[in-house]
Fold this sequence. Notes:
- By secondary structure, this protein is an alpha+beta fold.
- It has 12 helices and 38 strands.
- (2R,3S,4R,5S)-2-(hydroxymethyl)piperidine-3,4,5-triol (DGJ) binds next to loops.
Amino acid sequence: MLKAFSCAVALLAASVISVAQPASFDSASKVFRLDGGNVSYVFGVNARGELQQLYWGGRIGAKDAFPQAKPMPEWASFDSSYTTTPQEYAGWGAGLFVEPALKVSFADGNRDLVLHYESHTMTANGVDVVLKDINRPVYVTLHYSMDAANGMLTRSATIENREEKPITIEQAAAAAWALPPAHYTLNYLTGRWAGEWTLTQEAVHPGARVIESRRGTTGHQANPWFALQAGAADENHGEVWFGALAWSGSWRITVEQDQLDEVRVTGGFNPFDFGYVLHAGEKLETPVFYGGYSAHGLGGASRLLHHYEIAHILPHRIGTGEDAAPKPRPVIYNSWEATEMNVTEAGQEALAEKAAALGVDRFVMDDGWFGQRKTDHAGLGDWYVNPEKFPHGLKPLIDKVHSLGMDFGLWVEPEMVNPDSDLYRKHPDWVLNFPGRPRSEQRNQLVLNLARPDVREYVLGFLDKLLTENDIAFLKWDYNRNWSEPGWDQLPPDEQKKVYVAFIQNLYWILDELHKRHPKVELESCSGGGGRVDLGILEYADEVWPSDNTDPFDRLTQQDGFTYAYTPQVMMAWVTDVPHWLNLRTTSLEYRMLSSMQGSLGIGANIAKWNDEETATAKRLIAEYHKVQPTIVQGDLYRLISPRNGSEFSATQTVNKDKSQSVVFAFIHSTQEGRLFPRLKLEGLDPKAEYTLTAIEGKAGPQTPATASGAWWMHHGFDMDMMFRGDFKAAAFRLDRK
Ligand code: DGJ
């Protein structure tokens, strides 16, 4: 049984309370409080001076106040009060047995760190709280801000060494979160290449569940996002706490139920092989850990997160505040599955003509255009246009694409090098390596050490030149392996582990610099599919490539998992050829189109071979998609029927902001025993408004009215046509307010 939360809300007269700003501080009780949307977050300075977590959940009354934080008691002589008390950012010291936020080694061998409150400063949207070790000049500034509209919290820490000697940071979290007592189900995303975005759900038990990447990058295998459902919470009901880490390097999130059943989540840099030497006067900034709360289940949590990503994180936003949003993505054509590396000027131009005829907005040439790139054995690192494939450079192709009314995008993989390249022959020392040890290749390539200043300059230099000399609207930025032998032999041996931070900082620096120099150029983050999708890269990337697996049936489950953490706006989805290369499955073009139309649509098939019927179908559905795309990619998403767990059916629905339009997708995977598609009861409409139903593909059942109230569509719902049966069938509808 979980014990009562020790610091229950008490109605006390507060001395200094202001709730107009998201953050306030009560100087009498030493309690900080942030309020935004339907959420309150409260912590305070306890009698020992530690920063103690007090409350995170539904918004409490403006006058409700908390008494001063009281440390939890020790549990016999085995668990000290220091370890049982949930702290905002606990140093490893004083007998801490739960996950520390910060662990350091001092030059004299001391490894004890106990952080106490020192001071604070109110900021525009929150507060910065300074902690200091009890007797060493190690300072940590905790940055908090809260979105006034939806209660999303942004947390990070700055660690500063004011000792005269260096300290080594062995573990540094961005934030630690404590949850109210409950029985929780943990949701997280797992996978592998071509199998990303599996929503994994399990009960939280005593002990720790570690979700992480040790790969130097975000990884396909786990994604830095979590959601914890309390008790019987489900897709649409009940309390959910969630968080997402904005870091594209090795990361770790630890979900821990301690010996007294308190549940805490701690996340930041992965402490595995970590060791960041902080010299006198230096600072280390952690990544940002975003956190949110919803009383409307996992669906409510993802809608909050989607909205936050669109309004506050993605680049190229237009407008300000909660109304800011990037434009819906152009419909793209990508050449990869059609031509792989066999790109030529004539071949690409032929594809471009066909793409334009379909109504595509952007033509993207994938791998194979540069250096001596004929296979994946050579060329990476040599970013000149291959003169045999493009004798006159890229200009003729780009001009052709423009003349067809599309803009042009190009594939690059800037952080990699093939040993068979001029770059590697000239600079073999530029890759991650330990001198005298093997350099393990994956896909015949090595990782350039972006942490090195010369590599950083090289990468920025060639990209800047490429974008300056060519009219390129979009880069697909790929990254096709993870790290091995992560040495940085320019630095002294005890400082080389800095590479885990410096590499990613330089990646972000390059992306930022490119945005400044070429503000209109858009970017896709791809890493052999979804290996680099996180809220750090999404500050620079307009879209992501969720998976190399383009099978439309597999994509339904992948897209379902993806949308728990990320908005459909960034979820690029191509329609490709059949039988599909991975599952050897054949599905109709309508099914493939509708599967992809749930995200940002792309075409990745060999359209040069498409017949008139296929061309007409794709053209019709691209035109339909263009009409409703903003609702699909930026509206509120409701996962009406999940495709997970071998479900026979699945369905999604999106509703735009002013509730004037809604789009419904329905898929049959394989009907059994003639079962009919379940009645679809819609969500999120205006109950009093009248909506007209129009089929984009497929038919509604004969009893379905052409027009009915939002209440009717939500309470009664509508049936599919009786003949909507079989294998791999798809239908889509739009509802428009009259
Ligand atoms: C991996 C990507 O995920 C693919 O889409 C394609 O761009 C290849 N790399 C090219 O090498």
